[in-house]
Amino acid sequence: MVWSADKFVYGAAAFARNLGLPPMLIGLTIVAMGSSAPEMFVAATASMEGMTDTAIGNVLGSNIANITLILGITALLGVISVRSQTLMREIPLMLAATAIAGYFLHDGLLTRMEGVMLMGLFFILMGYLIWHGLTNKKLDTLEAEADEEIPTGVPTHKAVLWLVVGIILLPLSADWMVQGAVGIAKAYHLSDLVIGLTIIAIGTSLPELAACVAGVLKKEDDLAIGNIVGSNLFNILAVLALPGLIAPGEVDAAASTRDFYMVMATSSALAILILLSGRARALKPWHGGVLLLTFISYQLVLFLA
User: Is the C-alpha dihedral spanning 257, 258, 264, 268 positive or negative?
Assistant: First the structure.
């Protein structure tokens, strides 16, 4: 799944560059969505198989893992500085989107209308970010770093080939992951929600881990944070909309309380660390240690509950 998601992004980004699309547009759409492609296909597959709690658990668990596990590991490698003004807008938007999703889940139901509203908000948000990115003439550090990551010199036929390979293998690998999760759940008597929050969430977050570690090692700190914020925004709006659209109905009570509160707490912690840290605006190694301990503690709670 990780490999096919990577090839999908590679092919799509290279094809978009060959078409002459601006790097900021490619980064905000193809690259951001591509990193969440595993969550999207797993959520759709699980929903079609009647495992709504697994789909919702995957979204909530992935957002928690992105901040606590992925950023935790990445921050341990060194200080992650944030200079992008784009991120200063996206982080509050991530908090707002998370709060809206929590409101929809608090009654223990995810309806088809709520799924439509989440998907609608996603398209409105993407439209705003794309419009702002294309109309703002001031070069943002995130745009410069995104430009460096988009493949250059890739023949169009090769880009299309990898795009098609990714599109074919992503749904297949998503189905294999869901079926494997079902087997694990039955063998160890775990709920669909816990499987989505743990094993599947960690598995679908691996592309973000690879992107963040690579970004920090290349000194592209804004891109590393941007991958997480963009992925969480995509997950909480577009991916969470899928179980509502495909298999609306009741939601495990723990998802709308314990697990959503954890998503809101970790998202708020990221905002506080970056937005309220003065001119520094950085995640330090000790922040990474705290985030990683938070992830481990949460996993223990899930398995021991």
Answer: positive
